[in-house]
Design brief:
two-stranded antiparallel sheet; 1 helix; two-stranded antiparallel ribbon; binds FE3-S4 cluster; Alpha-Beta Plaits; alpha+beta; binds iron/sulfur cluster
């Protein structure tokens, strides 16, 4: 089981979430962040740190949201780890 960044993060990227992760499994893509599902230890700490509730447990995803698990996996493989918040990244 893993937590996933949902499409609500797209074009926003507050990046508050990245500093809360104890195992550094956030990755920074072009327009959103991704969680490495193989690194996530399912702690849930990041959920409350996202101001727009864009992180959820895989267990709570709707059928429509389920593809986000593989999208997060692909994004985490394609992009570098981000561990420090950067307010300038918010695109809203
Ligand atoms: Fe990191 Fe925990 Fe969030 Fe997984 S649930 S991404 S381990 S803070
Ligand atoms: Fe995205 Fe929320 Fe993190 S908008 S960057 S998942 S704090």
């Amino acid at each position: 089981m893993t937590f996933v960044v949902l499409s609500e993060c797209d074009n926003c990227k507050y990046t508050d979430c990245v500093e809360s992760c104890p195992v550094d499994c956030f990755h920074e893509g072009e327009t959103m962040l991704y969680i490495n599902p193989d690194g996530c230890i399912d702690c849930g700490v990041c959920v409350d740190d996202c101001p727009i509730s864009a992180i959820a447990s895989e267990a709570d995803l709707t059928e429509e949201q389920l593809p986000m698990v593989e999208i997060n996996r692909a994004g985490s493989l394609a992009y570098p780890v981000i561990t420090e918040k950067d307010p300038a990244r918010c695109m809203n």
